[in-house]
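Consider a typical record:
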Amino acid sequence: MSESDANFEEIIIDEEFQRLLPPLDERAFCSLEDDILIHGCMNPLVLWNGILIDGHNRFNIVTKHNLPFNTISLEFDSRDEVLAWMIKVQIDRRNLTPMQLTYYRGLHYNIEKKLHGDSERFTQNVPRGQNVTLEGSTASRLSEQYRVTSRTIKRDGEIADVIIAIGLESEEAKHSILSGETRISRKHLRELSSATEVGIATTASEIVAGTFEENRQNSSQEIGAPNSSDKTASHPMSSKFITGANKFIEDMQTLPKNTTPDKLKKTIRSYIDSLEKLYGQI
């Protein structure tokens, strides 16, 4: 690791690395901007071979206001190792939505599988000179790291691949899924892993158009809802409430055991907001 000053022109912005990071909402970005304007850019930007790999929001702010900043350079052997490091940093640092957490865990798993397969003994992806040899399969190691089951990690990998495929059709659709704006279950996303390119494209188009509505017929049975084939059994609004309830159950089930109170409250608040929105439609 080395420290240095750098000019704006010397820093390379890699689109893949930049797209990997969940964007800050307007309120969080403005708060960061105000802090930097008052105290300066206290945390150095992190580079790999001159490419920015941590600090994209800080870089945008110091560039906008022509402020001084420092950089730190880390050494990795490949882009995949950089991606794995970036994902771990983001998961550790940010207050992610349940779907974002699923997505980034899945990305981490898929990258580790690409690098190491199911090797029982391999080297963790950390900056060169800090390598630590670990034992265990990729899924079991990450399950311990993120405090979820190995099965969840593997499912997250499937979901991440689907979200990437949707993103290739439309970045707007991908963002809508990760932000929680589009309500889509993990089960539905896993089912899309076997869909054709046309099916993925159709889903992306429906999300962008705001017409996407997944079939929750089977899921509705999970919480004791009446059979959808009984046309006289339920109110027209019931399916929307059932969809929201099942989504809330899935979000709660994927929260790790060491979830902070803030993350738990955010998950519950999201469900309450969805109920209030439906209540207003009655």
